[in-house]
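Box S1 | Example of a co-folding query
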Amino acid sequence: MVKSEEVLRPVKDIGGGANLPHRKNTAEKESVMMPPPETVVIPMQQHIGAPCTPCVKKGDTVYVGTKIGDSDKFVSAPIHSSVSGTVSGLGSLLLPSGQTTETVIIQSDGQMTPDPDLKPPVVETLEDLVKAARDSGLVGLGGAGFPSHVKLNVNPDNPPDTLIINGAECEPYITSDYRECVENTDNILEGVYLLKKLIGFKQVIIAVENNKPKAIQALNKLVENVIGQDVGVDVSDDEKTHALYKVATDERDADNSVRLMRLKSRYPQGAEKVLIYTATGRKLPLGKLPSDVGCMVMNVTSVSFLNKYIKTGMPLVSKTVTVDGGAVMNAQNVIVPIGTSISDVIEFCGGYKSPARKILYGGPMMGNAVVDVNMPILKQNNAILVLDRKQAEKRVESPCIRCGRCAKACPMRLQPLEIESALRIGNLEAVKAHYADYCIECGSCSYVCPSKRHLTQVMRMAKAELRNKK
Ligand code: SF4
Ligand code: SF4
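Box S1 (continued) | Returned holo structure for iron/sulfur cluster
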């Protein structure tokens, strides 16, 4: 039990947001490895930034981890084969984002032979770390897809002082980060200590929502094992408030600056701006980066992967994906070779329980609809939701009753109703004056609206109009 004096300081409350049903149906199921599919289709654009150009051609032999695409631009990330086999051709694909990308199509030999040239990198300096992150192909695995080496390339003379490890995973259904915390705790902690040492953070906050007690216990247990001191958290206590706990001190954390933060379960707790404010009280202004307020935010699975890469030299070739929804037979977390089709993944999960009416890349709040089940799993996919008729029911709008719930729910303190009204009459000055471009597209306003107004779509349109006007 953590004593009250161990709570280091009050933390900020998100304000707004929405209480969503968690529906974490897969939380207690161990992740299962999917066998290699016959074919993978690997897009050359799986990240924010410049697309890669294929560096293989039809007929080439590739192994698991062989580089198949790269770019000479800094904001990009190389792409590697997820299976061993033969390149059967190059193609193109329309992504849900609307971008068209080149693809490399690989016929698997079923052997999953690792590339014999792979070896663990030597990482002793910040420069080594940045190079390793790039070579690994790592991008933000929480869904953002931002190349991690760009984020890690800090000014060594003035690095951010705070590292926040994002384990909030606040969308319903998704449990892949949670499983990572439970199944690969040691990799997460080792990765945290490595980042702390090489970048020189003054504090590290590992942030996990309080609906994941086993993840919190696992993170504490490891520390307990390392130092032989029980700093366990009674997770049934203090359910309603944020709490920040000392984790522990060991030789990797001599200044005792790694903390575990138990967050209230309230969507969208894991959104970057919200998390920075919750964890540190710092506000991230529009157009600024977390480093501008002295922070770096890393997804918990990204940190775990980076540590695994440094130990093994195997780049990012697979992804743990939560497969759930009323229309899929066996909901579970599946470790999927990147480029595997959604239909292969659903088949691995036992196929359809009922007709699928909608398939989402990601969660129900921020996920993108997929129109073709042959679409491949991408690096930044953390979930595939296969929704049945009831789950996919269209929201029929009715007139606004001016109840104000949308504004109350907005974590950015916006007035979605006013922005909708201004956009409807084409008053872009008013749209701007209501700070529409601060919207993080979290969907909380739409979720709470009793008139089922499509406010998030309106906010996206408002932001697009403001961008076009510039
Ligand atoms: S929540 Fe819906 S009904 Fe209420 S004020 Fe906002 S838009 Fe209108
Ligand atoms: S206006 Fe934007 S940030 Fe605010 S609740 Fe709606 S979607 Fe989220």
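The chain has four domains: 4-27+120-312, 37-111, 318-393, 405-469. Residues 405-469 form one domain.
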